[in-house]
Amino acid sequence: MAQTKRKRRNKHRGNAVGMVEARGRTSKPSAQARKSGSGRAARSAGARPLKPPTLQGAAIKALVGAVILFVFFRFVGNGTSTAGALTMCLVAVVLYTPIMYLTDKWIYNRKTKQGVK
Fold first, then answer.
1. Sign (positive or negative) of CA dihedral 74, 80, 83, 84
2. Most Cβ neighbours (<10 Å): which of 5, 37, 61, 99?
3. DSSP helix/strand/coil, 24
4. Is residue 59 situated within a structural domain?
């Protein structure tokens, strides 16, 4: 009678202390690998290039903030009508858009001075 096929089980081999090490690389990276910038910061900077700020991006962020404010004013605020909440949100969009643009511009300038691309 043929034996049933089973997946091979890997044996856990402990070290001298008795601890079981995780599979994979257990040694420290070489000096050249550390210098090449293969860390988390290099990966995150390489994944998304730095783009200059735009008014359109600032307006989108302001609209998201205004939607959150509308929900807060209309449903959490006591005695606020829908028209009053919309008026507050319109004022918020007008004020938030230049503030968000200036904030994005400040962050962009700071990162370009640091050398992040």
1. negative
2. 61
3. coil
4. yes
